[in-house]
Amino acid sequence: MNERTNLASMFARTPYYVLTGGLVIIFLFPLVWAVVSSFSAQSGSAQALGYGLGNYERLFNFQEGLPRYFMNSVVIAALTVLFTVTVSTLGGYAFARFSFPGKNILFLIVLAILMVPYATLLIPLFVLLRQLELDNTLVGLSLVLAVYQLPFATFMMRVSFEAVPTELEEAALVDGASSFDVLRRIMLPAVLPGLITVVLFAFLAAWNDFFAPLILISDPSQSPLPLAIAVLRQQTMGVIDYGATEAGVVVMAVPCIFIFILLQRYYMRGFMSGAVKG
Amino acid sequence: MSVASRLTARRLTGRTSAWTRRRQLAGVAYALPTVVFVVVFFILPLLLVGQMSASDWKLLTGDKGINFPTNYGALNNSPLFWPAVEFTIRYTVIVTVLLIGLGLGLALIVQETSRWVGMLRTVFLIPLAVGLAAASLLFWGFYSDQIGPVNPLLQDIGLIDKPILFFASHQNAFLATVSMIIWKFVGLYMLILLVGLQAISTEYYEAASIDGAGRWQIFRHITFPLLRPSLALALILCVTGSLLAFDHFYLLTKGGPDNSTVTIVQLIYQQAFVRQNLGTAAALSLVLLAALLILNLMWFRLLRRGTAVA
Predict the structure, then answer these.
(1) Cα–Cα separations (whole angstroms), residue A175 to A69, A172, B24, B95, B105
(2) Where do runs of H (alpha helix) occur along B54-146?
(3) Mind listing the pLDDT tens digit for each residue in B127-180?
(4) Is residue A30, in this structure, part of any structural domain at all?
(5) What is the reported pTM?
(6) Residue from the list A3, A4, A34 with its beta carbon closest to the beta carbon of B138
(7) What's the domain range around B137?
(8) Do B141 and A252 touch (CB under 8 A)?
(9) B148 plus B253 within the same structural domain
(10) For residue range A71-103, what is the model confidence (pLDDT) as tens digits?
(11) Which of A40, A148, B173, B298 could be B253's S-S partner, Cβ–Cβ 3.0 to 4.6 Å?
(12) What's the number of domains chain A is made of?
């Protein structure tokens, strides 16, 4: 009857499981390998024999120390999420529920950020942040990272606000509630799934970004993890420390994978509901 | 939009222009943070990059006045410029074909909803959560002749006699980087195309199989045309992303061997921070912006014509 069911029933035998099982192994193998090798012994690394935490110890004490880099990454991610959520929630509300002069042009300009290459903005921002005395600061870096989240976040929040029925809101307005009360009490709970998606994307982008810190941060004490681990790798002294590098990879990747799986329900529903709308 | 209709109703009664104005002001107030962000961190930098591209502007000495069109001329004369353009385009074409082809393959595999398929989707999506820099450093060790499992594996299969240095030859470096990119990003294209597949009504498939269409015919004449909007989105994302490739070449191949894997964005970085010439870097980044704008305009033309035909 149904092509999908036919396909599934045709495949619902051994070859299908062999194929997909093989794919699972291919996709997971590099990650599992990174975890194992970060604990195992390698020549030139701090873990000389057997399994242990030697690589992590070296990583912990590298230059400014792992806690510093980790905290830098946490602060950058938190600030980026804060900036993105604040600006896109207020902006999305404005675009969805209010009419004011210049609204459509402003929305188009926000979307146009997507069309401009990262590098094209980072070269002048490097100069501009210095003039604003925000160079080499976590705040400056987070502001720049938030700019690139705005197109997706503003779009997402606008669509989320527009999907909320207007009845409750109107009743509240007639009763004399301010538009901010409406936003806080009625709208925010309704747009929570969209908000969580925005938070997730902003967090992942900020936590993982390499290019912006590479250009904007030259003070090692302000480095986020990706930049610090890249420097750790280059710090050779004749021998490349693969072990500590892979330990760094694990420290960077594990929080992301954890949050990604934890929030899967939310963003998958968001994506799939997009399908119904066409 | 009954808030709006209420507004017009009130305006008709003539009582509430003050209320309308308050509403408008509130809208402006909510949009204000967006305006500030866009002006300070988007429009101002765009104007500045234009000025920089036409100026003698070094990293250490700063602005030394207009020198147009010296920076643009310097680009054309740089021995790395055209090879980087050629390499970036070649990389984009190959990666786009592979990512969309394989993404479609995976999407077809995970169409059904079952426990096993749900797990498969998650597994294919996990590399997306890993950052590009982290993934690059992971695979840098993964491919190494010191600790990586790839060399021993290839030796066991008998493909190679002794460990090879993946980043010593252009072909191997390219192959290794593209494989990593597919591992990392194919899940995204699976997801986009899966959403497209799910949106196709099963009635089409039923009608076609009643009419006696074969599996390939159904794919060719129903799935593929109806998937076009999703394919277009995947194409735009993939081409734009690949043209701006940086992290993985910077971290994995370091542009080598012999500058054979230098992308355009890498060249911008090099001009700005190795050559310390912000002026030429700005000029190059504007050229890249122009290329992307033209490409996007072409997409929109094509898309509009495509939907008009369909």
Answers:
(1) 51, 5, 19, 57, 55
(2) 70-77, 81-109, 115-129, 132-142
(3) 999 999 999 999 999 998 888 899 889 988 888 888 888 899 999 999 999 999
(4) yes
(5) 0.90
(6) A34
(7) 81-261
(8) no
(9) yes
(10) 999 999 999 999 999 999 999 999 999 999 999
(11) B173
(12) 2
